[in-house]
Amino acid sequence: MTMQTTKQDLNDKSKENRHHIHWAPLRGIPLERRLQTTAVCIWIVLAFSCFAFFLYLFTYIFLWPEAELDPEKNYLLGYHPHGIISMGAFANFATEATGFSKLFPGIKPSLLTLAQNFRIPIYRDLILALGMASVSRTSCESILSSDPGRSIVIVIGGAAESLNARPGFSDLVLKKRLGFIRIAIRHGSPLVPVFSFGENDLYDQLENDENSKLFMMQKKFQSIVGWALPLFHARGIFNYDIGIVPFRHQIATVVGKPIPVPVLEDGQTEPTKEQLLAVQDLYIKELQRIYDKYKDTYAVDRKQDLRIVN
User: In the list 54, 173, 227, 259, which could disulfide-bond 157, CB 3.0-4.6 Å?
Assistant: First the structure.
């Protein structure tokens, strides 16, 4: 067989192969490659499902600014309430679905989450792609110390508050939360209260009064792993009574007015207890003002007004 004939045969085979599907063999493939392919498939499914999920929610979510934010400053935005999984926080501050950059030009927010979430394979890559960061003190200070306009968004109530999330109620875990105020004062970053009407209306959960065995088990679980475990439910794809698809409910997110923080004196490295409580008082008053102003528009079916709890 000549070299010319060999090339011709190869060309013929190449043309023939263009019209065939090359299936991967069931045997003989290293386990490492199988795992790599599996990981990529899971990532694709999660990525598209998250996109579809947010697309479903975006129809019902909007962002309303009450004041402009100076792009030369670094802000600390406090998001309330936590809800079951903070859907409003993701949509407004981890994506451009509600047009954050147009409403607040020059402000670049980073939504913060538990450090444990960055140890979960694949999920870690998704939240990093959304620009999210750890809520650790080091992470907060690093962002607030960087370029002008860089800001952080913290869901203040955290895991503890998710156990209070149910339709018609707005119980905020805030009285003992002073850490975010301390960080804001240390860096001279104004505090911006944010309240999302409808966040708690997306899911319901089993009754878990503070004295119930279920609540005690949930708190024990939270103390061990750092996450809360609300036994939540909403609607399904083909039913209206049970499932993990959120209820069809609007989320109206109101960004309040910035609260200036006191400047530390020369030689002072930490704010005093009096300074922390004074700023907290202003913060709660602004949060209450937002709620009272919009509750009759966006919380018409509320069962109870805003409460600040332990």
Answer: 173
